Amino acid sequence: MLGPSRPLPRVGARVRIARFGGAYEPATIVAVEDDGRRLRVRDDRGELLDFVLNRASARFLAEGNAGGPRLELS
Fold this sequence. Notes:
Elements: E1 14-18, E2 24-33, E3 38-43, E4 48-54, E5 59-62, E6 70-73
Antiparallel strand pairs: 1-2, 1-6, 2-3, 3-4, 4-5, 5-6
């Protein structure tokens, strides 16, 4: 039986926020909603950010900001 082809988001998991220009910053998932399609993360400065799964690219993108940061699960 095959499992998921990529890591599934879970509360407490460490992730990376990829910013425009190649900058990365560590963060932690604090909430998983909508069957894993919406995530809230807290960066190391304490800021909360919301990401949603883009169905076309299968990437988590900053909510309301298509050209903004994206989330990388590890």
